[in-house]
Amino acid sequence: MNSSSITEIARQSRLAARQLAPASDAQRNLALAKMAEALQAVRAQVLATNAEEVAKARAAGQTEAMVKRLTIDDKMFDYMLSRLKKVAQLPDPLNRILTGHTNPAGLRVYKKSVPLGVIGMIYESRPNVTTDAAGVCIKSGNAVILRGGSEALQTNAVLTDAMVAGAVVAGLPQHAIQIVRRPGHEAVGELLQQDQYIDVLIPRGGKSLIKRIAEGTRIPVIKHYDGICHLYLAADAEPDKAVALAVNSKCQSVQVCNALETLLVDAECAERLLPLLDEAFTENGIELRGCEETLKILPGIAAATEEDWSSEYLAPILSVKIVAGIQQAIDHINHYGSGHTDGIVTQSLSLVRQFEEQVDSASVMVNASTRLSGGGDYGLGSVVGISTDKLHVRGPVGPEGLTTYKWVAVGDGHLRD
Amino acid sequence: MNSSSITEIARQSRLAARQLAPASDAQRNLALAKMAEALQAVRAQVLATNAEEVAKARAAGQTEAMVKRLTIDDKMFDYMLSRLKKVAQLPDPLNRILTGHTNPAGLRVYKKSVPLGVIGMIYESRPNVTTDAAGVCIKSGNAVILRGGSEALQTNAVLTDAMVAGAVVAGLPQHAIQIVRRPGHEAVGELLQQDQYIDVLIPRGGKSLIKRIAEGTRIPVIKHYDGICHLYLAADAEPDKAVALAVNSKCQSVQVCNALETLLVDAECAERLLPLLDEAFTENGIELRGCEETLKILPGIAAATEEDWSSEYLAPILSVKIVAGIQQAIDHINHYGSGHTDGIVTQSLSLVRQFEEQVDSASVMVNASTRLSGGGDYGLGSVVGISTDKLHVRGPVGPEGLTTYKWVAVGDGHLRD
User: Same domain for A25 and A169?
Assistant: First the structure.
């Protein structure tokens, strides 16, 4: 393949997007069903191809965590199919009349949701992003260009070929779903140049990948940066619930963006709660790093440095700080946090109100694990990621996050005075 | 002033934004009323200061068009005050519950509109942007940093001081509205560095200004690029209406982004309509440039070149093309247009449907002048501009365009399995 082929892929996507835009919800849902059927028909091929790539990754000395993320077993494959079915069941994000108005002269104006157009997905190893992203894009009437990690290229190609076949059976254009098959950074570089054809890029992966893409393109980027997530245990926090929520937020999975990184404990309940928390986290193999005040109650743990407060560990480490009341907790979160997911444990409605109003984060959790912030629990069915941007889409990015709108003004020869 | 003062302005805006976020709609509306009152009290000072700056601009040999844009007379001042009052009357864009959901485990999730935070407005001469932008920002609970053109610096300073005094009377923070008083490009350059404090930049002015800003900052930018606007006269277009709409779209004001630049005439009505159009445009002093087919009917006009189809003239020139049916019109618009405002003249519902679905533009006008695309006629009260972006906000940018949302999830000890 030569350089022009990436441009050709992008151009074909733009044409496909134009054909896709008027497709009805029924047709898009039919396509999602046919995509799932076509995938089911190549299950054995997907698993075999993936097993080969997993073996190669192992042989190349990749970490067990990376190999795990690369692997599709039967359970994972079922999950991927179920997400396609789930996204089809969502309400149509398109052609909603978002607002309307008749002006004094009788001009009728309305604002209607429409697809963004062409979405470029650039992601690392996890092959389930291939089916998730295609599902969300088709549901929202967008054409998608997929660019997964090289280590999953064959798996992603088999998945994509099946999805394309399914979509075509339902009457969608051939190029509604495309994959970049050329490995290497150069192909990504060319993709970043296609601002004429691509409406938005969504990179999924490490901070450095996202930064490299955001800085290397004129195409708008929906960014998924880190989650430095906090949980604030208010003075009245009920001990059992507080411990369970803190442990679940941190330990249910440590390597994910909505895992807890800093625990804020109100000074009024610190003496009561910290020993219980220490015991629970120790049992779960978590290393605690405390502020000066915390160390007075838990002298056995390590001291947190300034750097700890702005660290996304993605590891079994948790920083702990005692705060003098809710305002200090909110100020700490707004200063050190990443605006991803932050929670409070309390029974006080007025504390909840203050926390919810003042914490400037995509997700505010009240008496709920930070791990519950995400598309599934928010009713979005399937998502392409969790945006840390404030513009356009914030938090989980489902089908609605991939729409824009147009204004339609209907007159009868209306002129401007 | 030194370099750190721009950072200090930005930092103060961030703090003000945090205080402003919980302000009620009543309080924000009161502030808008007090701002208008305070402006009214300094009317004479505004007009005198502006007259000095207008005289300076004239003496410096500025064009009459530029001087006109700079001038505030009593009528313009009344208009500026009326816009502040109008924006106050709009529904509250904040704290709307945009969507909600209870998940099977009983976690209650809702999505609530909130301010973006800190808005940076960078604009050229027109001083009415100062009051319009402040009005839209305060209505939507955002802090704003204003940076107008050097030629209007004193006028803008008087306007801003009055608005700040009014806002403070209503209990809003002192730094909710700020202006950069240091002239020169360097101050703008420093503003572009404040990604730690500023959430979005909105440049208003020429294409080169917008491009320079978009490329020189990591802060998200809401862009206002050119309008290469089209009007398509379908085969059934009623001659009187078609001519009136074409003339109004082009001639009501030629120097604005929603003025007509290319007229598309269906081949079936070209022989009937073109002579009428030629006559009307000639009367209005408009130069026509036609495609080959047009020249066969109007041999007296100039020939359009390929460059004409992608030109935003902002001048009394209009390119004219005969198209073989609606699909060709749509394809021309999607290829050469800028996605700003494009219209159709027809009585056919099915043509309207096709045009509305397939034209990929922020505003689609049906039997209405392209000049009617904008915040006033769309019921937005007051706007900070007309976005040509597809992400976040498209078309006129009113208070709602300056909001984002947060997700709030309320549980009762809900954990992730």
Answer: yes
